[in-house]
Amino acid sequence: MKKHFREWSVAAALGFILVALAVFAPPFYHPQPLLSLVTYEAPTLIVAVGMATIIICRQIDISVGSLFAVCGVCGALLLDRGWPCLAVLPVSMLLGALMGAINGGLVAGLGLPSIVVTLATMVTWAEALRWLRQGVLVNVGHAQWFGFTQGEGQLTIVITALVILLINAVGLRHLAAGRFIYAVGTNAEAARLAGLRPRLITFLMFVRLGTLTGLAAFLAAVQAPTLQPKPDNGLELKAIAAVVVGGVAISGGRGNLWGVFCGVLLLTVVSPISPALVYLGIPSYWGKAIQGAIILLAVVADGWRARKQKF
Amino acid sequence: MKRNLMLLLAAGLALVACSKSDSNAPSGGGDKKPVIAMLPKNKANAYFISCSKGAQDAATALGVDLRFDGPTKTDPSMQTQIVEGWINQGVDAIAVAAEDKASLSTALKKAQSKGIKVLSYDADVLPDARTFFVNQATPEGIANTLVDEAARIMDGKGEFAIITASLVAANQNVWIAKIKERLAKYPNLKLVTDPLPSNDDKDQAQQQAATIMNAHPDLKLIMAICTPGVPGAAEAVKQAGKVGKVHVIGLGLPNENKDYVHAGVTDSVVLWDTGKLGFLTVQVANALVKGTLKAGDKEFKVGDTTYKIDGDNILLGEPTIFNKANIDKYDF
Amino acid sequence: MSSPTSSPPGWKAALRSHEFILLAVLMAEWVSFYFAGTHHTSHGTFGFGTADAQADILRHTVEIGLLALVMTPIILTGGIDLSVGSVMCFSEIVFGKLWRDAHMPIPIAATGALLTGAAAGGLNALLITWLRLPPLIVTLGTYSIFRGLAEAVTRGADVFAEFPASFTFLGEKSWLGVPVQVYVFVVVAIAVWLLVHRTTWGRSFRAIGYAPEGTRFAGIPVERRLALAYVLAGTVAALAGLIYASRLNQVTAADGTGYELAAITAVVLGGTSIFGGSGTVHGTLLGWVAVAVLSEGLAYANLPRELGGMLTGVLLILALSASILPKVLSNWRARRHTGTSTSQPPPPAST
Known about the structure:
Mean pLDDT of chain A: 89
Largest interface: A-C, 62 and 56 residues
Number of domains of chain B: 2
CATH topology of chain A: ABC transporter involved in vitamin B12 uptake, BtuC
Strand order of the largest sheet of chain A: 1-2
Shape of chain B: globular
Radius of gyration of chain B: 22 Å
Strand order of the largest sheet of chain B: 2-1-3-4-5-14-13-12
Helix content of chain A: over 70%
Distance between the termini of chain B: 60 Å
Strand content of chain B: 15-25%
Strand content of chain A: under 5%
Largest sheet of chain A: 2 strands, antiparallel
Largest sheet of chain B: 8 strands, mixed
Order of helices and strands of chain B: HEHEHEHEEHEHEEHEHEHEHEEEE
Low-confidence stretches of chain A: none
CATH class of chain A: Mainly Alpha
Number of strands of chain A: 2
Structural class of chain A: mainly alpha
Number of helices of chain B: 10
Oligomer: heterotrimer
């Protein structure tokens, strides 16, 4: 319990809020709106799963928002041309992988700092998308909810996200590759001397994040009959915040995906678009401030604990 | 190294110095094609994209150069920057749809002082910052059409909500004020909360609509007064399974709403011919540059159509209601 | 903390050439836009090559320039400040509220804004020095909370506008052909340059970035120096906010969005290492001007402005690659000679 104190505390905070909602705002638990909210945020969870290992490796990727927008629009354009969903999904993931590989190549291959590399790629992809699409909506009509009914489609998306989470959480914990990631994040030089290849691992983590983002973008694109190209969607901030709140240390080497899951849920429940705010009678313009407070609290809690551990 | 730096910087300054110009006179008149610059609220908004199509048609027909540029999201400071750039480029006329009146008006007055003709369209600025305002319809016309349509659908009683663009958008706020005035005619029609912002984002409009339906289970109608808001609200109603229970109307483009109208999710959309709005704007700009239109004129003729000028407002006409019966006839 | 392994003189030479190259890029940009974006008519010259256009280009990005200036010492220490855009906005809101709702005179309201900025910087400093938290994550948190507070205080809707002429002159008027805010900028630029390049405090910034523990053992009060850097950043962010408010004659909760990234771009483009330990203020200024000219010059040349963003991204990568090129080349040459891999692990995002 002590080892995962951070993750348990996030889970506890989440639990507390959920209980408070059950008591003070039971309408929050109406199935349909809740399912819609969870479906809407499922792509964020998938991206956060990818972001978590990047941060564990002591890197960062602030280009995921633009990556997401580009993959989403490309996938939507293919769907508009009549391509079936099963064909578009791998294309979106491949495109994400390629864009992630560019990030990874620059960071791992050339040794450039990830924050600046992903800043550069973020701006480049975002502006390229704006230039080429100018905000024109893309029609995906027939592919909405993969062609299933709304309920089936929503469940498919949510279950896909949960399965991705499960696979990655188990893999990170039990596979050797997972341990390698923690090793690289704790001390890359030591990992290299121990026979690992930190640059390859780092590169693969960026490709993995890109692939997952491509998947998430596709799952988001099928949620409505038209897609609006939105390069500035704030996804990178959401993902990083969820990962940090979930207990992954920005100094690398620690954290697990269950904490990230709780982090995503926590920030979703108090987001400005959440019905929770409405039912608790809090005006929506407090949403961002509440999220910011939670992030800051998580950060301070981490620092406080680390400080105490030093003495 | 610092010496080299200084040398090169000095060279740069010299270059600038020798290009100091007298940019106090407009560049129009006989030298080359007149340049008309057109500023949307948001370049990525389908409404303004369709305006620009009509504007381009007019520009081609008149033989003028059209520069259409704007921020790619709601950004009043970028609007001001773009206008100031145009002033320095010596364009002949500037037509703006203002996100926010005050800051843009200062820049526009500077343009006027340099002889550039200034007009506004869709969303007005301060009256002394422009010669004419090409208004798609009077605010009363827009508000009354919307409220009457809402009352008709709701049988004159019930709760409804408004989704707007951004909370500071000047023209939306004028329409909201007129809507509230018109509501006096329907005492049983209740506006259930303050207008909800969508910031011209279809997804945000969808989230707002979903939230407001959750908060007010008896809500009967959502009125979206910005074009991305209508399909967003309609999708929310559809996903909440409340088609028929919650009605959707708004200011929307026919193309974006055809499917929802036919599916019965959206009852009707109200708009005007956006292409014509863009077309008329460029025509007015051109006429101002050529001098065939001056402040104080009472009407403006384009081909066979005569447009009324009400003070300094040039009216496009009356808003049109698009519903199942006629929406397929339009393509914009 | 990773550090360049080549000897100091070689390091200095590389830095020298980086700025020279950047200056060359800037000149190339400038000349291209001059010819592509200026046209001469019988009524006079219009376009990029006019004094008005140059003045406007500077005016439009003075706020980002100020943020880039104070971001430089922070990045020199190996830190970062993502909150400057949000602090700028929040200080503006405080200014607006004090002036409009509390009916305070402009100078008092402005002082209130500057104190707010300083306090915000102080909060960052406190969390970074006392709790020893990574600056990246602390300023990510303050970035969120100050933006959130700005939205909450204005309820997302409120706009403060129509400030008196005694205030807006700062953003709108010119003295002797130079916009007023540029004078303010020059004063701040000189001050920051002197701080970083001519004082022991400034030297300590680079030392902290190069080797934080070593600096502490050398007797330098690291916490106090860091605190200065972050408080300075907050205060100047507030100043930038005041200039922004006077230029646009309005204050909204969305102001300054993305400005922190623009500031970081300018600093990195200017040759400052994101890991700290090396960099110059004049490099930052060059980087700032290069981006400003690029983004506005395209519009004068009747080219799409999105191209500016894309080219900035590419330029950033090129600038980064150029700075590590000597190291990569020497590694590659060494590997070819000895046949062993001396490849380093990829650099971490934060220490």
